Amino acid sequence: MSYIATQRPKADSRVPKAFLLQPDHPMARSTDPSSGPITRFTPTSWLNRIPNMATVSRSRNSNFEIDPAVGKSWTLPADVYLDPALLEREKQVLFSKTWQIVGRRDQVANPGDYFTAELTGEPLLMVRGSDGVLRGFSGLRELPEQAAKYRLEKLKLAERREYVMECNWKVYIDNYLEGYHLPSVHPSLNRELDYGQYVTETFAFHSRQASPIRGPENEKDVQRRYSQASGGDEAEYFWIFPNWMLNCYPDNVSLNIVLPLATERCVAVFEWYFPESVVKTEAPTQTIRFSDEIQIEDGRICEVVHRNLKSRSYTRGRFSAKQEKGVHQFHRLYANWLES
Length: 340
Hints:
The chain is built from 6 helices and 15 strands. By secondary structure, the protein is of the alpha+beta class. A hairpin with a 2-residue loop joins strand 5 and strand 6. Helix 2 packs across helix 5. It is globular, with a radius of gyration of 20 Å. The N terminus is likely disordered.
């Protein structure tokens, strides 16, 4: 996918391309999971769509603003997470106009190959014709250049799971984009990452969170997933507007796709990819068990946050200028997109 940042991907990039669909609503479910990461990204024309101040109409006939300065800005109001009418607007002006994942290019590599997918009840057929043309898609993009070092073109799909949560899809995105809940919510992950060096970088339409993986200094007292870490390894977490993420570890990459099922319900689709040489080893089982624990913890805290948004004493909050740069970016992009 082309990476919307300060520079375009190099023309000779070895990262494979994928095909994408712009659906009315993004419940993409491939019926044929095979090798290679599912990919999708946003059109480069978005670069010119960010104004100095983004506003969007609230359900209570008022406006809210997302200040471009994180230290001065207010968060999205609570009713943006709770208004059923706003979900319908999101379907019309956000999800229907952004790139959404439906499958991988290798699923239709040869003439006559096809697969079916479903987008919230609407069946789709993707087919490569006898002329070699791929039909039923809207465009091609390349994976983020920053993720190319993980050699994504060499990875194989190990497993796919879906996690349904009783919360608005934006609550899950908010949670993903800040790391300060790590020590209190994710004890196992906190043993792996050096939270003191956790960083967040924001770009035009994506963000990157990263942390060094701890060395062997705490292995005597606790069980570690990355117990052989040399101290020079790093975990990176990429978010691409509006609803997908790429989690990159030394030995695996996982894809998250977050999809609204209802105003107060969403699903996080996870897919785990590994080098072919380790797909049949114990590494995928250990990694998926570790990741599953983290996702269950995230699901619980997201559901608590969503319930608390209904409090009569809460309307909106302020950002942590240090810890919530990624959340602020998401809120600003979201407000701008709905306004346009």
